[in-house]
Design a protein that fits this description.
45% of the residues lie in helices and 14% in strands. It has 43 helices and 33 strands. Helix 17 (812-832) packs parallel to helix 19 (879-905) and helix 27 (1031-1045) packs antiparallel against helix 28. The chain is elongated and about 180 Å long. The chain starts with a strand and ends in a 6-residue tail after the last helix. 42% of the residues are buried.
Length: 1391
Amino acid sequence: MFSPAVNQAAPSGSVRSSRRRQRQSNDSISGQQPKAKRQRSALSDQTFLPPEDTPEMEEAKPQKVAGLANSRPLASMPRREIAVRSKKTRTGDRSEKEDGISILTKNDTYTVSKLHALPDRLRADIAGRQHGAIYSDSGYALSLTHSHAMVWQYTTNKFAPDTYTFALPYPTKHVSDPLPLGALVSASTSSDEPGLVVIMPESGKITYWESITSAATLDLIKQQRNGVELTIPGLYKGEVVTQVLNAESAGFLLAFTSGRTAYMSVRDAQGRPAITVQFMRSNSGLTGGGIFGSIRNYVKSGASEHIAAARAGESDKIGERNVVVATSNGKLSYWKIHRGGHNTLHAETEGRETIVMAMKEKQPDLSDLLLESFDLLDFTYTPKPPSDAASKDQGEHLLLLASLGRQEAHYALVSVVLKSNTLRVTDVRPIKSYTTPVNRAATSKTRLHLPNPALVAYIVFDQAVVVFSMAKQPDSPESQLRAEGHILPESFEDVVDFRGDMNVEIVGSGIEEPHGNQHGSKDSRSRRARVKHPATVLLVRGSGGGVIRIAATDTSKLTSSIPHKVTARTKLEQAVLYGNSAGNPLNFKVRPELQFPLEEVGIAAVELSLDILKAKVASGKISNAPSSIAANLKGRAAALHHLAEYIKASGVVLDRVTRWKLLWDAEKMEAASNIWKAYDASVAAKPEGQKRGLLDDLVESIHEDFKTNPNPEQGEGDRVRHWFIHDIWNLEIAIPWAFQVIKYTYQDGLTEHSYVMNILSEADDLVIGALESAFSFRTKNLELYNLQTERLENGILEANYEGLPEIWTSTIFIAQNVRKQATLAGALLQEYWPKSTEERPEINPALMDKIRNESPRLVDLAIRANTERIRWVSVQESPALQMEAETLRADQNKAQHEQLSLLAAVFDRADDALAIAEKHRIMSTLAEVMKQEIAFSTANLRNPGLDAAQHQYWKARSSDLDDLVRLYFDKFGPEWADAFYKLQIEQESIADLLNTYQDKDLSHFLTAFLRSKPEYSKISWIHEVSRSHHYEQAAETLLNLGLKHEQHLWSKKVELSLGKLARMADLQANGHSPKVEQKVDLATTRSQLGLIKIQQQAYTYVLPSIAAAIDDNAEVQLAFEAHGNKDLKKQKALSSLLEEGLRHLVKQESMGVMTLIDLLTLMDSVERSGEAGSFKGEQFHLALKALQLGISDKQEQILTLRIIWRRCILKDDWNVVNDTESKDDEQVQDQLRQTALYMTLRAGFKNRLFEKDSPVKQLSPQDILGAGTRELDHRFDRLDVSIRETIMKDMQAEDSALSLFIEQSQLDNWYKAAMDLAKSDFEGEVHLETNEGDSMRYAASLLQEKEQSIKGQAKLDAEKVFNSKKSKVQEKLEGKFLKSSRRENNQADHY
């Protein structure tokens, strides 16, 4: 190989022919004596000096090439590369700094740039094998292929530079053969341009051209071969040259695969071209001992003597150079070579063990690695410290690049001093950013470069370059403490990686050094570049390759007291700003060795995203100049897109909040782009002098805390453009101001509707453009931001708002102001639409139509923003936000209903209203608008004045609406059905409800709706019978309604009767026996019907007394006056129970059994003339019968029974009954027969109430004492204690009255007498009936036959009864029945 490192001395000069010297300028020859004649001379002390260059350069004195050609034309060569001489630039002319350079990436430490100058041959053949070197001191680059050598100025601004192409005299035969080696040679006295030496590695043939320009010129005029040639003498069979080292002014050093080294000179003592080669002798004796000894030593040495690198150091004398040769196993040899071939070995040492021990001491985790895994890859000279500079025996200060390990390489930079056959390690710096093993098949070896001032080292691998800081932290108390604790901060290191998918390979490298002496030719035509920063320059093969410079642009950070390190932010920024450049060969994926914590990556991503929004991050592709805001926004949007793509491609899984923040930033950029497009178009359309619009006022109105003010001194006068560049990160502040500007404009006195309509139009453009694009962008890019699992609905999250910060598209200000803006637009349109221009000439009809057509979109966005806000605040823990959610929900529900209704009914946008309601599932509004449209279409269709076309239109419209209704059933199911059916019930369209959309596919929706709503049971059973034919379900519905919910007595009786009939019809139709539950239901139904019959009897008794009432309240009052118990004046609680019972009775409301018993036992019975019997004789009998029918609990049966008998006995004055003086027995018995006790007992015997299994028993006065004085029935369990005590006191009053009768009126005896008399009278009546037994049995048989006939007919006519009942009840429901049910539905909590 070749090494163009610190010894690459080749002074630059003008490009000219060797036969004709160009004149020097006056400046370049001032102070010099002209030479008497042209002569060859020894090399001067200016021949070699360390090179220097910079990635940001200015060419000092560029010259143009006169003519270029191959020294030996070959048939395979398609063309010669000839450049035409161009105009020279004058001394002092400045060129642009970035001319000829493309920035591939940069950060605050280094910059990677691509130099455009590259020969067309290399640009076209990106896959061909080649290698080369960079010579910064002369500004030339060298590239060698199997057949050609090419030399060109790599720092020129030309895309296709003038190239010197040499056809090699002895090209290799196979592409797998080693590539030729070469080096530029310092210019001779006869030329200002360097020469070229090329060596064929296997054959050892050497060709030397004294000047690259003279070689090309001679070839052009087809003269003799102009190169000097030689074959290396003494070359072993199979021995190959591996490296050529330029050690001028002493000569060259050759390295061989055998481990041998040789001195080579290309000039004789007089400076004439002449090649000589002689092998150097070392203490190992590899080159001595005769031919057989030499072969034996060569075979024995093998790979152990493989030379890894050779470097030349500075020399204090002309013609002398210090050279160090290092083998891969750590052997170092220090030579001093002289011009003419004399050489001396000053030091030689085996350093492997010493270096490995130092590496393991620095990194204890490497202690298990074997010594044999050590590999010395390269080294370079380092500056000597001041203490050693004064010493004579100072030794050689070197920086070694070493590695340990095979599967994973552990690299380190090891500082050593080679002195007197000893090696002393002074420092070890582990490289942690790169652990990929060296590619042994690489074209070029791994190289270490340390350009002055030795602050940054570059380790060049085949597809990566490690940038490593060699700077030491300044001394400070803190650094001393860290040093004592062995916790010094790690050195800065980073990796510039190249892409493997582009087959990129580094095939050569060199260095550029700043602030060095301008060596070489001093004439104004020198191509030497002015270097500002230490850099390495790479020759890169492959797609996107060429000449690439890596320069440390800010070394001050490396020497600061604050440790500098690579951060996730810098890596992200590089990848985002440069990673998507076309043809960029760099790989921006973070290496495994440099992985960052997810939290740091997330913070860095959010910071970078925000800085892009704030225009605080700039690259060559994004300009913050106000000339093109569209281009600026597009560039920043692309940067945000690249950020998301890079994070996704890297496999980094950021937390959910971070991913949403990144997406929201990108949404803002997209929204801002749309706002700018609308604004730019508006400004372009306005006439001169009227350019100002809403956005100008909006930007000025935003508070200073939420925007950056332009600096007029810097020419920033356009506030709007400045806002788009710097302040769109606060876009959620600007959007609400669209409405606020309109409001404040109106308040400031600009009330002309034409002006308001104009700014409203611009406000619509802003809000619609921003929010629509944001929601659309969010929907399309979920996967890009790794949010594909989130469920969106119309651009907003359906759920899972927990943990998310406030969303920018639905801040409280956006939600409220967009809703108000939509309402304002509706109000203004309602004022003017559809009036003609004659009526309102001040309004532009086109503008009004624009706002009308935009209104649906504005309403849609208001719904979305408010819905998103409501969902977010609803999951927050703050009580204030919870209250905000309820307020917002109420306000939005009202506003959206009004806005959609307005669109449909006034603005002729019914289809839009339907679409929006459908989109947001606003079912109540959707049903209402649909119902209105159906009614409107039907009415138009019935218009007799329609022509055929109009009739066809409205017919098609009605059909379309019908199809849409059916579509809603399929799409929304029960959600739509509930809203649609509920609206029909509210509008009393019962016939439509039961008869429309009830085909086979849709009837189940009404069935499910009615079954799920107990309040609609009165309609449900009709549907079950008429449409579904579910008699069992109809029975279930009717019985459930009648038993549990119905309060109206007549309705309850009908429902229970029909339910009982439906149950029997179902059992009969299916031939099933009733189940246990069904038997219970039927028994309960019979009991309830019995109670209803008792209540109707009581109502029939009370009805005459309320006939004169004018309203419900009067009925209650009259009933209480007529049947109130005057004896209860002091018993307020019982009087209240009686009043409550009378109110239910008069209003025909169903009563509970206990209330009914209280009514029957407490009411006063008024005897009326003409009545067949007394109600006094029935009320307690009915009460006992109600007990038998309605009370199942044993304890309550006994308690209630005692109370009934007590009130029955207290109905009469037993003092009067007990007064038998002057009365015969008949009179006494007649008087006893007038008592309620006798009448009740007689009725009980007659109706078999006192049978064995009946809960009704005869109780004596002693048995009923104390009833209700200590316990009450279940009705009063939840009442306040004081109320319960009041009721029990009234019960105690009844008990006291009973006790007096027992004590004073012989009540016990009278009770027995009444029972005996009632039983005797009942037995006499039975005896009378027995005498007529025969006639009765005959009558019974006839009756039985008649009943069987009636029963059979009833079974056959059961379904007919249902149908007739259904039609009658339906009429009731649509009339008086439906009106009464509305009142009952208010008691929904009872259901």
